[in-house]
Amino acid sequence: MQTHTQEGAVNxxxxxxxxxxxxxxxxTRRMLDAVAxxxxxxxxxxxxxxxxxxxxxxGDMWDRPAFLRACEACGERLREASQGIIVVFxxxxxxxxxxxxxxRVRRYNxxxxxxxxxxxxxxxxxxxxxxxxxxxNYRCFDDARHFFDxxxxxxxxxxxxxxxxxxMQTSLGLIGGLLxxxxxxxxxxxxxxxxxxxxxxxxxxxxxxxxxxxxxxxxRNRVFNQLACDTGLPLLYVNTVGVQDIGKxxxxxxxxxxxxxxxxxxVQAGPPFEEAVATVVxxxxxxxxxxxxxxxxxxxxxxxxxxxxxxxxxxxxxxxRRVVVGISGGIDxxxxxxxxxxxxxxxxxxxxxxxxxxxxxxxxxLARRLAEALGGRYAEVPITAAVELTRGQIDxxxxxxxxxxxxxxxxxxxxxxxNIQARDRGGRVLAAAAAAFGGVFTCNANKAEITVGYGTLYxxxxxxxxxxxxxxxxxxxxxxxxxxxxxxxxxxxxxxxFTVTPSAELSAAQxxxxxxxxxxxxxxxDKLFRAWVERWERATPEDILEWxxxxxxxxxxxxxxxxAALFPDARTFVADLERWWNLYxxxxxxxxxxxxxxxxxxxxxxxxxxxxxxxxxxxxxRYQDLRALVTA
Amino acid sequence: MQTHTQEGAVNxxxxxxxxxxxxxxxxTRRMLDAVAxxxxxxxxxxxxxxxxxxxxxxGDMWDRPAFLRACEACGERLREASQGIIVVFxxxxxxxxxxxxxxRVRRYNxxxxxxxxxxxxxxxxxxxxxxxxxxxNYRCFDDARHFFDxxxxxxxxxxxxxxxxxxMQTSLGLIGGLLxxxxxxxxxxxxxxxxxxxxxxxxxxxxxxxxxxxxxxxxRNRVFNQLACDTGLPLLYVNTVGVQDIGKxxxxxxxxxxxxxxxxxxVQAGPPFEEAVATVVxxxxxxxxxxxxxxxxxxxxxxxxxxxxxxxxxxxxxxxRRVVVGISGGIDxxxxxxxxxxxxxxxxxxxxxxxxxxxxxxxxxLARRLAEALGGRYAEVPITAAVELTRGQIDxxxxxxxxxxxxxxxxxxxxxxxNIQARDRGGRVLAAAAAAFGGVFTCNANKAEITVGYGTLYxxxxxxxxxxxxxxxxxxxxxxxxxxxxxxxxxxxxxxxFTVTPSAELSAAQxxxxxxxxxxxxxxxDKLFRAWVERWERATPEDILEWxxxxxxxxxxxxxxxxAALFPDARTFVADLERWWNLYxxxxxxxxxxxxxxxxxxxxxxxxxxxxxxxxxxxxxRYQDLRALVTA
Lengths: 632, 632
Known about the structure:
The structure is a homodimer.
Chain A: E1 10-16, H1 24-40, E2 45-47, H2 65-80, E3 86-99, E4 105-115, E5 118-119, E6 130-131, H3 143-146, H4 150-156, H5 161-164, E7 168-170, E8 173-179, H6 192-198, E9 203-208, H7 216-231, E10 235-239, E11 241-246, E12 249-254, E13 258-260, E14 265-268, E15 276-282, E16 291-292, H8 300-318, E17 323-326, H9 331-341, E18 349-353, H10 361-374, E19 377-380, H11 384-394, E20 398-400, E21 406-409, H12 414-437, E22 440-441, H13 447-452, H14 473-487, H15 495-499, H16 524-533, H17 541-549, H18 553-557, H19 563-566, H20 570-585, H21 587-593, E23 598-600, H22 621-630
Parallel strand pairs in A: 1-2, 2-3, 8-9, 9-10, 12-23, 17-18, 17-22, 18-19
Antiparallel strand pairs in A: 1-15, 3-4, 4-5, 4-6, 7-8, 10-13, 11-12, 13-14, 14-16, 20-21
Helix pairs in contact in A: 1-2, 8-14, 9-14, 11-12, 17-22
């Protein structure tokens, strides 16, 4: 296809690539294909995302010279392929003669401009690439750990960074190159985009590797549109799709590439979560184009799509085909099973109900009905005999002291017996069944449970992935409703699962048929925990109690009910607050250290985005004064 | 005690404090006591470590305003206590009116100088503290994530950092303040210490929070002595003791505070791993003092001391008093048990032998003899019945398909049965026994096993802490020998445990009495894995194969034997290389994500010091070419 454009207009192409992390050769093969196609299509410039060659979230992969050499060799192939076309791509750049501040060979998060077989070279830095200037060091991002940058480079040259930032000279004129955070400049001392505009750029390219976060595109549209308008330049935003992880925390990349015209309009250049190639005509003389930018908030549908993308992508990457889900008849395991049923073939999905001494006929029936509706394979494996065997072996076990003397016996308490049941389900049955089935088993925990460690390590807190681990309980219900209504268009998750009391069913105190269940109060605890975990300046009991005392708590944490309706007085309020805070900061941390990875969808997911030490629960002196006052 | 000194000489005191991470009020109480004592002793200046008020390794604790307020209030109390004495201490400094680059309130890793109830104020920055200039972003350190710094400050002021760095004016004259990394300046564009010297400092103080790492003090003595000599100034190094962690990775701080005289001599100002208060007289006119600096390498004794300090400190912090160790009759569990026996009372240590279908009389006897020698409580809990129960429930389990139709059965393979045994020991028996005993249970894995995931998740890879998780197998043997010889001064670990073939005893193929055991070849695999994990520029199979082809492998990885004696030809060498590499980068990563924390003693420990994503094993194109050549 030869595209015809008006005089002076420029055809540019954004390639919203699925980048395979840590697979430079594979990514490059696909990029070379896209370059060849772009050239055949008569496109003047083709742009790929940030770190499209190596991938972005690679942990400490950057300290392996063999990997850096491979990435460099891939970059050379892309350079060679740039005959008659401008190829803009993200890659790691290596300066083998210099050291980074970690004492290792120096690496840059770099944007390369190749044309006619040569890399464009910066007139100031003399480097054949644009170096990322603003390195994010929050959430999961560790850029300062891995990469040298324009600011440190300026320091080394005894100058200021604005002098080191300049557009690249190409046959299309000066083009300003930005890498992701470079355009999120509101919290930095200067704006690389504005410097590039000031230095005569014809348009700006922002190559990104920016993960999906609920409502982030809303903010991005606002910030990037403003930047385009402020500079008066078209801004091309090209982002990755796919899945990248940093161990404990798995991120989905939604692409959503977009071209902003500098006049308050934009052209969508890629659908969310899918690979796409979009060619956009930049009109001559900087005329307006596209539709007015109208930011929209993300819906539950986007959340569901992100989760599906994450599970599918990570399974494919790790070569996982078969999955076992333990289904209890509750909502978390039901949504987990429903999610997997959309990804794996029915014969590759095994749903297991594991009734124990306290499982009700209600939940067992709901589990069976769910399995029927989802159409996977199904079996029941009771745990009672094994639990009794463990009880028999451990309770009253005689211990031997020095010289063979008797030294007391062990005694199992009620809570110990609850955990034994949970571990029997997870660490014994599900793990063995998954191995026999030739697959993995899932962790069905939600974010509220993970926050306070409401779950048993090696029991329900185990499995290959906690797909719902970044969803509050109310989001679990909302996504489940959405899947029934829009995903399946029939109630595959039985209504009874929405209405049954959430319960671990590990003791008589948790009998669902008597309306008894878990001690968590939804959605109040969702909102309370969210204030502890997700607020940008995280709240502690000191803040919570201050808001409570001022009668502002509901508004501050976004709880639509009345706190006074839950707790008759300040004493019970404080007891509840401390109970869960102590768990969040105490055993909760220990459990998260050994918990499965989560799919991150919020702006603060557990794992690498919520770094924590085993500090134990801390309550400030000021909190203690406040408590004395409030509960007096 | 009033100390008398020659005219012009200055008495300075270094307080090698055990800093409790995340407990500002508790730390400050102890610091106030030390200030009062120093004043009573007639000392002119008292110096505390970096971040002595809040602690250093706190994860993301810094994003809680309530915590920052508490630290600030503590700083005020120290300021008020500085009547008639100079108090130098590390604390977080907060600028509530400015933002950091993460959009949160701005925080500095700061060194405060208080005197006569006032903070010394920098003449240039106008800030009442010295800000850390060089922020480490390697190993476990995330300084750029948490703190603003002098370099970014300079940028904001439109100037260069050297202008922002200056000594503090005190009644003793100008004193140059440095925070830890500021003096480890060899990989940075400039040296804060030299700038401070150039600007007329009388002496330098380096307040640190620097964790123990085998042989690091050797390097520190070299670097710091050189810096003191280069500047011609005394350099006071005051470091923390105690234990701080970042979830997966637990660090021990050894103090080892020291004063360098600027003439190649030094005075030790604190023994390793213990709190200490040392008063040093800085002579008038910069005269020499102390002993010649003679760096020594760390011994196995230091390693053993670090491990003991780590286990003891973390147990105390988390309130753990009782411990269960599963002892197999092998060296890893024997050393673990021996280590705990030095920390907990005999009645608080429970040693369990868990014989299974393949356990030999040899190892069972060794376990019993170990328990006798250590004097803890002891019991045997066989796992065979439970393993049979699981096999009976899962093997041949009939599955149900849609509409209740039969849909095949499950089948357990031989490896599945090995893992069932391991999980039965860990997730079933040890977890239940620890709960009944009122304590925790240990993970006994060593670093070689953790590298390649040679162990079963929820089985032998579980427990509260892997105390030996940063020790290669040969280090495990060495520390065990050391404890027998020096720690206990008798063979509490029976000689048979040193000589028995290392074996998991999970199948007939691992029968120790026939000399069969684990597939790992020690110490060759120790050395190979170390090259993958600990080299500063990490090696990959590409590097290994290159060295092998060049006949250099033994020298490169420090293996004292001959590789040719282990592998008859290149094919078997390559098969072994890829087998373990694939495990290290494949299942090994998945297991480490859910593995217990480790005590870090090397310069690269698993967890936060070895960040990784589930990328799967990558072999470069160049490796594949090389392999074709070598195995042709």
